[in-house]
Design brief:
single chain, 142 residues, mainly alpha, two-stranded antiparallel sheet, 3 helices, rod-shaped
């Protein structure tokens, strides 16, 4: 699980880094590096190991591409995690009274009830078993 502290740390690292987008320069194996939007190198040359052979060049090129892509991807992923967590919180808040209703309807008997509420034009209905499934699914998310 990604913690709030990790998200905060990753955002701080991204905010402190050279502004993006970054681009990997991989045209010459001996000059693999990553450049910022201003054209300046954002890190030293990227080496996969001493010596040059085809496999090491491919690895170093892939590393350069990853570093360049991560500059834009990490902040976007951090934003998406926060958006999805807010959406999950809203779903939990909306579902809480319905889940509580199901819990209370079963409380007196100790057995799950088999009720259903309101059919819509599309045939959708709210059922006790559906509410229990929703409550169980929400437990799986932090």
């Amino acid at each position: 699980m990604i913690t709030a502290e990790q998200l905060k740390e990753w955002r701080a690292l991204a905010d402190a880094a050279t502004p993006g987008p970054w681009e990997a320069y991989t045209k010459r194996p001996e000059d693999l590096c990553v450049f910022g939007a201003d054209g300046d190198s954002v890190c030293g040359k990227i080496y996969s190991n001493l010596g040059i052979d085809a496999n090491r060049i491919i690895t170093a090129k892939d590393n350069a591409d990853f570093i360049a892509t991560a500059r834009e991807a990490v902040p976007r992923l951090e934003q998406e995690v926060r958006r999805l967590r807010a959406q999950l919180a809203a779903i939990r808040a909306t579902a809480a009274p319905i889940i509580e209703f199901e819990r209370m309807s079963s409380a007196g008997t100790g057995q799950p009830q088999n009720w259903q509420i309101g059919l819509t034009d599309s045939g959708a209905k709210l059922t006790a078993s559906g509410i229990r499934a929703l409550a169980d699914a929400l437990k799986e998310f932090p």
